[in-house]
């Protein structure tokens, strides 16, 4: 199978309706989409990504009101998040309706739902007329794609289509908030800054190493299998550094703003102004580029622990954990 790059959303709609997979642009990263309520289609998504079936998928809807098609209950605070931040880079984990297939939720009693903001993605979901499951369109555990070229690099020959919608505006995956029996959890920091959410509904719990107290996942109480460390990794070993004294000659450097003097290897500065939004939009592209540069090691300077910096540090630390084992 060759992977065909589509320019026309209607061709994507036709393929999806026929039960085929299409990688689609969203404002966060490209997603590998298929009919979200059809178990045979969901099985194809797991196979194309080499993704274990204990890692559940996000179901994407075209309009916020469609949440009640998938969630059996929308608590008051979840409703406030929907009203204020959808469409956008926020995913909510809520109790699921019985018709949502087990394969989408990994057998959990909850379903992850997101209403994305990208106009092409919304148009496609609307025309298909059903929620679309869409994990990031990368191989399991590898760097997330923020362009159609990234998708083709990893999934060429494994999927029939990718719809080219240009570069993703936000650049990191959605923030995931879980409404679980024992509280409201930040399951993954992401493209919607955590502070904005906490300002609206109060402090979020953080899962501990063993998961959430109410976690029922198959991975030792892991209710957000996105917590697995081996996510978002380039092939090149990566370390997170806090100062230039930790740099080795020849390192490929990823930095927000400050630049090392007289360093021999490639250096990517994500934002000359130190703007985290700009940095996030270029983050995966920069990692892809350093991964291709043939350096022995990538040294990434830790981001400020605020706003989108939380999501960027999370992705860096998971990538680094893969290589320290
Ligand atoms: O921005 C995004 O969220 C992108 C775009 C394509 O929408 N999608 C994405 O999907 O990042 P994926 O599959 O790469 O990450 C989804 C995460 C997984 O780590 C999964 O474990 C978690 O969501 N998840 C899904 N359903 C869940 C549930 N019921 N409970 C807890 N975590 C869940
Ligand atoms: Mg992913």
Task: Spell out the blueprint of helices and strands.
Layout: E1 4-6, H1 9-17, E2 22-24, E3 31-35, H2 39-49, E4 58-60, H3 76-85, E5 90-95, H4 102-105, E6 110-114, H5 119-128, E7 132-133, H6 148-155, E8 161-163, E9 175-180, E10 183-188, H7 194-201, E11 238-241, E12 252-255, E13 267-269, H8 276-292, E14 298-301, H9 309-323
Parallel strand pairs: 1-8, 2-8, 4-6, 5-9, 11-14, 12-13, 12-14
Antiparallel strand pairs: 2-3, 3-7, 4-7, 5-6, 9-10
Helix pairs in contact: 1-5
The protein binds threonylcarbamoyladenylate and magnesium ion (MG).
Threonylcarbamoyladenylate binds next to strand 5, strand 6 and strand 9.
Classify the fold: give the CATH topology of the largest domain.
DHBP synthase
Q: Using the coordinates above, name the CATH class of the largest domain.
A: Alpha Beta
Order of helices and strands: EHEEHEHEHEHEHEEEHEEEHEH
Number of distinct helices:
9
What is the beta-strand fraction? 15-25%
CATH superfamily of the largest domain: DHBP synthase
Average pLDDT: 93
Largest sheet: 10 strands, mixed
Q: Which strands sit side by side, in order, in the main sheet?
A: 1-8-2-3-7-4-6-5-9-10
């Amino acid at each position: 199978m060759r992977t065909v790059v589509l320019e026309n959303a209607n061709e994507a709609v036709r393929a999806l309706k026929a039960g085929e997979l299409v990688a689609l642009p969203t404002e966060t990263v490209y997603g590998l989409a298929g009919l979200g309520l059809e178990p045979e289609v969901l099985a194809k998504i797991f196979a194309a990504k080499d993704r274990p079936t204990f890692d559940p998928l996000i179901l994407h809807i075209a309009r916020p009101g469609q949440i009640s098609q998938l969630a059996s209950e929308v608590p008051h605070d979840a409703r406030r998040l929907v009203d204020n931040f959808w469409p956008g880079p926020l995913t909510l984990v809520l109790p699921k309706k019985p018709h949502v297939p087990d394969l989408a939720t990994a057998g959990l009693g909850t379903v992850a739902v997101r209403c994305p903001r990208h106009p092409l993605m919304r148009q496609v979901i609307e025309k298909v007329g059903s929620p679309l499951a869409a994990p990031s369109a990368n191989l399991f555990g590898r760097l997330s794609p923020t362009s159609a070229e990234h998708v083709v690099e990893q999934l060429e020959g494994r999927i029939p289509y990718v719809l080219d919608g240009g570069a993703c505006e936000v650049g990191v995956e959605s923030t995931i908030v879980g409404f679980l029996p024992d509280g409201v959890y930040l399951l993954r920091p992401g493209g919607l800054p955590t502070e904005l959410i906490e300002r609206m509904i109060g402090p979020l719990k953080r899962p501990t190493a063993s998961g959430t107290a109410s976690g029922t996942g198959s991975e030792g109480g892991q209710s957000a299998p996105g917590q697995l460390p081996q996510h978002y990794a380039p092939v090149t070993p990566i370390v997170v550094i806090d100062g230039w004294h930790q740099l080795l000659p020849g390192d490929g450097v990823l930095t927000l703003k400050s630049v090392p003097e007289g360093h021999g290897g490639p250096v990517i500065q994500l934002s000359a102004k130190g703007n985290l939004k700009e940095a996030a939009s270029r983050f995966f592209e920069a990692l892809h580029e350093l991964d291709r540069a043939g350096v022995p090691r990538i040294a990434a300077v830790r981001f400020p622990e605020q706003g989108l910096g939380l999501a960027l540090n999370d992705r860096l630390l998971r990538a680094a954990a893969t290589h320290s084992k």
